[in-house]
Amino acid sequence: MAKNLIILTLLLSLSGGAYFSFDVIDKLKGTIVALTIKHKKQIVKTKVKERGKRLLAAIPVVGLLAIGWFEKEEYDEWKEDNPDGTLEQYTNEMTDASKEVASEMSAEYCDDIGEYCHYIKDKMND
């Protein structure tokens, strides 16, 4: 009878251990699935961030190309009006025009700048 009790106790303990181990295995499977999903989301986020970085890196190149193209178009128009003009004359004319625009804009915002207005205007004229 004692043998039967020992066998029964061992059987129950093994059954209970198996139940708890299956419970732990199920929890671990759920955790693995959750981590896999989380990992996939992190991979997607990383890919999106990298695409954004590539896009931002490409914008300056595209912007520089566009600026160069627009400048060439403006130079060609200026060259039609000034067939004997040189590139140096064109750049001097554009520099003077830029200074005039900057001077006009600084005059508009001079009230906001305050006491440093004349200092900034003098620096721009230099």
Overview features:
rod-shaped; 0% strand; mainly alpha; 126 residues
Characterization of the model:
By secondary structure, the chain is an all-alpha fold. It has a domain at about 85-125. It contains 4 helices and no strands. The longest helix has about 80 residues, at about 1-80. It is rod-shaped.
Number of helices: 4
How large is the radius of gyration?
A: 38 Å
Kindly report the average pLDDT value: 76
* Low-pLDDT regions: none
Fraction in beta strands: under 5%
Short summary:
By secondary structure, the chain is an all-alpha fold.
Topology:
Blueprint: H1 2-81, H2 87-108, H3 110-113, H4 117-125
Helix pairs in contact: 2-4
